[in-house]
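Morning F.,

Quick status update on the modeling queue. The single chain you submitted on Monday has been processed. Sequence for confirmation:
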Amino acid sequence: MKLSDFIRANIDQILDAWEQFAKGIPAARGMDLRALRDHASGMLCTIAADLDRSESPAEQEQKSKGRAPRSAKETYSGMHGSSRETAGFSVNDAVSEFRALRAKVLKLWADSSPAEPPSARDLTRFNEAIDQALAESLDRYSTDLVRYTRLFSTLLSSSPDVSYIFDVDARFIYANQSLANLCGRSDDDMIGKNFLDLGASNALMLQRQLQDVIDTRLPYRGEILNKLCEREATFEYIFVPVLDEQGNVEAVVGTGRDISERKASEEKIIRSANYDALTGLPNRSMFRDQLAREVKRATRTGLPLALLFIDLDGFKEINDRMGHDAGDRLLQQVAERISACVRGTDTVARIGGDEFTVILTGVNKLLHVEIMAREMVDELAKPFPILDKAITISASIGITLFPQDADTPEDLINNADQAMYAAKKSGRSRFNFFTAGMQESAWARVKILDALRYALPLHQLSVYYQPIVDLATERILKAEALLRWHHP
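Structure tokens below.
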């Protein structure tokens, strides 16, 4: 039987044998059966048709060198090469497929007619056809590889993100244009250098991370503040190991992205959630968190702390008379004066309106707290230059101590608040320390207010009228109403 007829009659058997070989190629393990046999049937039919066609000696010579003119613009061999490049086959993988195809066809043909020696002409023509198909496949493989390399190179070089490839010695073997520009170098000048050579900030840390990726064969993702070039920027980056067929790391690839704007937005959100926009001081939320932390620290170290609650006297009148702009400027200057009275380790916060708090840590002597509170009262009593005017206010300060007065943040706040109101009642522009009597008075006041809520429905209120008489005429002009509460 002629080889061309044998190929047509046994094409499925040939493809089955070829498929078994292809399954052993690492790049083919993830491919489905249809992809493995893709274009192979068309190649075999083309070869069979070529065997039946007459051929000149010149054509035979060109074909044996893989230089014969193509039968069509798009051949099955070319499509095979393109599909293999896309699938990730190496050149050796693609060549080995044709070697296997040659061997399988010739063996099956010889086994089909053991008594009849193979035709020398068919053998020669078949080998020439296989060589031509291989040449067309590799040509398309190479063309696609060059094209995709060009596309990806253009993509990476035009990307605003940095892209890089390191060898196993943690030296650059590729750096895209964005990374080169960031480092103030050409992309060629990056090759062969490591982070230490480039003078990168945190170079040792980056080198260690790269080595860990190589040693563990696991990706690493991180963030870094870059001070390498003309500006400071925060980058998030990733190192990913590239493994060869034996599972060894042959390179490390990755990308990095400038997230400075995102970080700035995040910091702005965090700041607005924790700091007062007008004065820049910690707000109520951050103050409470800080007080809780300081209470825990004081419990651990045994060093007492003091909490000062400051309320401005007469601020509302200033705000109403001079406007909110003047009120805002006054609050800013108050914040500055209070901050100037404390140490760097203390915390000053604005918790709302005209209310401020101060956490004094490591208080060894009560005298130090008194001196600081007196300084604040004196400083806040001095005139404030606002809109070409000298504005005078005062401050009432309540002080409570941990652990003498309370052992929880909430109780400390309540105690300082009560002490502040006691200072206001005592004449303002002064400070008061919290005492147990204040708490008893506060509880008594709370009980009275609570009982008063039920006075009306329980008919405990009575109105008494006292006449107001004109002494000259003895006529009743009006009456004074007195509301009396008959509490049991």
